[in-house]
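Collaborator request, handled under Task 6.
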Amino acid sequence: MNRVLSVTSECAPLIKTGGLADVAGALPAALKPLGWEMITLLPGYPQVMSALDKTTDVMVEHDLFGGTARVLKAKAKGLQLFVLDAPHLYDRDGGPYLDTDGKDYGDNPQRFAALGWIAAKIATDGAGDWMPDVLHAHDWQAGLAPVYLRAFGGAAWVGSVITVHNIAFHGLAPAHLRKELRLPADGLTPEGFEFWGQISTLKAGLNWSDRITTVSPTYARELMTPEFGMGLDGVIRSRAGVLSGILNGIDTEVWDPDTDPDVTNFATPAKKRAATAALREEMGLEDNGGPLAVVVSRLTEQKGLDLLIEALPGFLSRDGQLALLGSGDGGLEEAFQQLADTHSGVAVRIGYDEALSHRMMAGADAVLVPSRFEPCGLTQMYALRYGAIPVVARTGGLADTVIDANAAALRSGAATGIQFYPVTAEALSGALHQLVDLFEDTKIWKKMQKTAMRQDVSWAGSAAEYAALYESIGTAE
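Structure tokens returned to the collaborator:
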């Protein structure tokens, strides 16, 4: 069996702050039937260490950026793991990246350089009797692993790939840390890992990896433009020959409306009505005959939710309703709460509740994802699985997973949702009016729901693409 070392700062269900964790947690099981064994290298945060049962020491590093560290081989939650047990770096009360006051740890450059350093050691020398064929780094937190791998000489027999989950985060560090981070002096150039006078660990990964992937084909194309490339578009263009976009999938066992323990179960759109009625009752909304749209999201401008506030009045005037679950920007939280206080068609829950998120997908007629940019997105895939029509901005993975209800798609029965562009309040308002029009045509609406529920949003196809990518790394330019 071929072997991959997945290097990541978070991995569901052990530690999660975003979609990166979902990908890292799902890939190993999806790859196994294809002949690839994936072991995940993860920092030894308290949440991770407490989940481990039986462990085996496979490596000791006596000077790992300020202290001694061990690498433990373990299993937890169905995952095969290498856990970097370095208390001086990871045994803290805050989250993976932020302290209890919500501020970046001052030594984050060293904390994640350590993760990359150990990854390269494993890829070069092995861990116990295990040696990978491919090192797969995820985002800036693992961006230095390919640099160290090449420095150790391991790149001669171990291929490397980096996946960009969100290019907005560069992993910046002051240039004066170059020597402390054990980085080559000749790398501190615009062609290396220098970014406006600082070190960018993401740029390092982009320039030193054999292959680059992003989490959707459209996002891969977008990253080559100044609008979406966040200052790294030139790097991406220069490496376009080794760039590919591979869509994420979702766990279709966890997200299954017919068996989901948190919802009123259904297998067809007709039986979905009971789940919609249950959600309305839970959220305190009367059934006024209009479509129930939901938002389950971080409340940020990136997610376009300020645009929704502007676009919502027209939708509400046509008997549309909104149920929202999320937290984030204080101003957006307050604005949505005010809408709920002043309009009977709006219900808001500030915070996050996993079980409620499932019930919202099950009960929704539509799910709104008006993101300004979205590398892949999972919410719209959950929506499709549960027969809720996604209304999405035409960007990133949203464009790749939702088939717009244009005239041709409606005639052929292929439509699964509504796309809008440009990403403005006016365009979103038009999409919400289209949503009401489609909802009022019962025949078309039910056809769209059935088509949505038939979409393959599993990891099967994506895992096959990753397996093919790993196979191809030996031929990298």
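The cover message to the collaborator said: "The chain has 19 helices and 18 strands. The mean pLDDT is 96. Please let us know whether this matches your experimental observations."
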